[in-house]
Amino acid sequence: MSVSKKIRRVTTRSIHEMYTAGEKISCLTAYDYTMARLLDEAGVDILLVGDSLSNVIQGNETTLPVTLDEMIYHTKAVVRGVHRAMVITDLPFMSYQNTVEEAFRNAGNVMKTTGAGGVKLEGGEKCAEVIHKISIEGIPVMGHIGLLPQSIHQYGGYQPRGTTDEEAERILKDARAIQDAGAFSVVLEKIPAKLAKRITAELSIPTIGIGAGVHCSGQILVVFDMLGLTEDFNPRFVRRYANLAEEMRKAFTNYVSDVKTGAFPNEQESY
Description:
This protein is of the alpha/beta class and 271 residues long. 44% of the residues lie in helices and 13% in strands. The longest helix is centred in the last third of the chain and has 18 residues, at 244-261.
């Protein structure tokens, strides 16, 4: 029996047990109660309330506009739907970059008001002091290196990171810094699989890949992407496990037709 099937509630300890046992860690994003309940029942280990809600929920082009209050609102909804999975919340842009004290205060606010199991923030060496402060005060921190969506204007696009020797070494240094600062895991986004394999082999904390190959300790996708709801977003690392956009469109069209023709509601659907 796998480690995860024995777990009643996923915590940093059980994540580490899965990691040391060589069991892959499953992660997906979640933004609301209903989706969180279904993901939890399916056995997903970690639910990330991602700042990607700025894109898939709010319709923004980047993750930058979402606020801390909005992240807290969605995290509360997700936590209510969960009995087993660990819930991690993204700290949004400008909630941890100003000062260490402000970062810790905002992370503490998330933990105190939502019931989340930890926070995630983007950046490597430059965020080490922040990660250390937050984690040493008892708040689990998930790091995030490689492609950093909150820094998209600096990159000028969503192209893979770590494709040159120089940048690959810098990302490796970031990974070491995050681990040394006290993070319990780290997301590797859109980096070459060989680099992800090297980082995973060197670290003693789990790596969670998104567009980083099979050698990571676990994988994460945006749930709307893997369900086929984001039809205009087709990166090579997304596997579509359903085509819900088409199924939902058919259901909505049939509903409109039934209302227009008087086929809904029928006698059995009326009081």
